[in-house]
Amino acid sequence: MKKLVAAVVATLVLTTGIAQAGQKQPQVDNITVASVSSSTSKTGWLQVLSEGKPAKRGKKSVSTAPIARELVAFKERVAPGTIIVVNSERRLYHVLGNGIAMKYAVSVGREGFIWTGSNTVSRKAEWPTWNPPEEMRAREAKKGHNLPVTMKGGIDNPLGSRAMYLGSTIYRIHGTNQPSSLGKAMSSGCIRMANEDVEHLYAQVTVGTKVIVRD
To answer: By CB distance 3.0 to 4.6 Å, which of 57, 88, 158, 173 could disulfide with 164?
Structure first.
């Protein structure tokens, strides 16, 4: 292991020396530097080095994102930490500050269930229990789908691995067992994310975080 580390270090030193001697150094991307050094940003080195793309997972217990998250420039003046969902884009932006945000693909409300407004995260839950509203159960029963009164958290649960509840409403930002719905308008009003993405966001969000949903 020590020989491997030494070899890597030697290679880096040699490469740097050659670049300094005979090549023009590229300009530093100020956005990337800000995302790494800012105290308001919790973006890890892995996300920066992978350009925000999901890391490969060995486990099959958490679904991967079919559309990769990415760091993007974000010039709107809102407080760092704010979550903005843009229905028309089917995207969620987590504002990191210093002109950048992490952008995630989401599924938003389908026709008749889409909404706009602002609220705050009132509660967080890992592997949440699903209690479908009575109206939803009645609506689905007419289609021949009998929903359970309650369903414990798990990989097959429609709420996925994490949920962030919005105020006292029935809406949540949550994971999903239907990753194919991401990038589309297919939910009953909740904001769906891939499980690995909702876990990534969940780890950085606190109760009280402002959430804005717009057209």
So the answer is: 173
How many Å apart are CA 161 and CA 181, to the nearest integer?
Answer: 16
Rounded mean pLDDT for each run of 10 residues along the chain, 215 residues in total: 43 39 33 30 34 41 81 96 98 97 98 97 97 92 93 95 97 96 96 97 98 98
Which residues sit opposite 105 in a β-bridge?
Answer: 91
Residue 200 designated active-site: no
Alpha-carbon torsion (211, 169, 139, 156), positive or negative: positive
Is the alpha carbon torsion for 58, 60, 65, 70 positive or negative? negative
Task: Give the integer Cα–Cα distance in Å for 193 and 211.
Answer: 15
DSSP secondary structure code for residue 185 in this structure: E
- What CA–CA distance (Å, rounded) separates 12 from 49? 17
Distance (Å, rounded) from C-alpha 27 to C-alpha 68?
A: 26
Place of tokens 């509203």: 133
What order of strands is seen across the sheet that includes strand 191-192? 70-73, 100-105, 91-97, 83-86, 210-214, 117-126, 162-166, 172-174, 191-192
Task: Enumerate residues 6+ apart whose C-beta is below 8 A from 212.
Answer: 78, 82, 83, 84, 85, 117, 118
pTM: 0.71
In eight-state DSSP terms, residue 28 is P
Residue 10: predicted pLDDT:
41
Expressed in angstroms, the distance from the first to the final Cα of the chain is 53
Contact between residue 203 and residue 94 where contact means Cβ atoms under 8 Å apart: no
Residue showing tokens 């290679």: 11
